Amino acid sequence: MTASHCDRPIGLWLNGARGSVATTAIAGLLALRAGLTRSTGCVTDTDLLRDAPLAPWTDIVIGGHDIVDTPLEKRAESLVDSGVVPGPLLEAVRGSLAGVEADLRPGYDARNDTGTQAGAAERLAADIADFRARHDLSRVVVVNVSSTEPPAAYDPAHDELDALEAALREPGRQVLPGSSLAAYAAFQAGCGFVDFTPSTGARLPALERLAQRQGVPFAGSDGKTGETLLRTALAPMFSVRALHVLSWAGINLLGGGDGATLEDPANAKSKLSSKSGVLPAMLGHDVTAPLHIDNVPDLGDHKTAWDHVSFEGFLGVRMSMQLTWSGVDSTLAAPLVLDLARLTAAAHAAGHAGPVRQLGFFFKDPIDSDEHALAEQGRILAEWANSL
């Protein structure tokens, strides 16, 4: 990797900083900074991006927002108990967690915040700006890893920035979902934004205009870590071999916070929507693709996905393929969060403003891109990042 654009450190601000993905990313970064672990799973440390101008692990500082106040140390201990974080690693970085804890601030909770959303956004943006100033950071990237939200209802105020900002100043009105308010605050603070969830985030015309005006990049959405990662690698195989896929059914079993969140049909709708467009885009035709997400609490952060693919070959002969993916969700997601912080900071330093479609490699539902095939996404990512 070549040197970063700036000798000063960068900041990673996590929205949902006390959740499983964030806590795993924090523990992992502390271990990487101390030379206690390898960067397995981090795409930015591979030859694919060998010429990208990325900040070293030692130059990344973490802070964040969350609406819960469980100490990071306790969250990390629970992840050790569930097999997500190795116990010896936690013991080695336990003393450093206090430094991160000192940079965590209360997030926005629509249920309890009685002021205007404009006031809430000002507070969130001020927290990020203070973090940047105290640590003398060259730039900060805000990554949303909070719980999945239901799809946002359409509101004309989301199209024009002036109308949106006027609506945000109205007392008692909830104009934006939490993920979008986090994006708005990030842009107001002059920071890049990444939505690792399928929530609305920055995917509103007014917010894109704000990002362009502020000269900051954004990317998303919904990190590609398990079943969809497998599909984006395998589906192109059927197309290139001229095999006709008839159906591709999937069942996802997971527990923990994600399982509980996605048990709510409204929240699950966002996740299912982000996964649904992948197969038709790669296969070139509509395909029967029933998909289920079931909460199995005892699985915790361990996730199992089972796929059944029915396809047709020469002379109309029917065949099938069955696949099982078992993974630890936060362990798969956390290195990608760190990768996205490095890459988005590099994009910001290079003057990129607005959606960064080249980061679609990391997402189920990439912003500003119709490309879903993993290999092609990897080529696009490498060509772009190595030329920054």
From TrEMBL:
The GO terms this record gives for MF are:
inositol-3-phosphate synthase activity
Gene Ontology biological-process annotations:
inositol biosynthetic process; phospholipid biosynthetic process
Signal peptide positions on this chain: none
Describe the location of the Myo-inositol-1-phosphate synthase GAPDH-like domain by residue ranges: 226-330
Q: Which family does it belong to?
A: Belongs to the myo-inositol 1-phosphate synthase family.
Q: Which InterPro entries match?
A: Myo-inos-1-P_Synthase, Myo-inos-1-P_Synthase_GAPDH, NAD(P)-bd_dom_sf
Q: Which Pfam families match?
A: Inos-1-P_synth, NAD_binding_5
Q: Please identify the protein, giving its name as recorded.
A: Myo-inositol-1-phosphate synthase
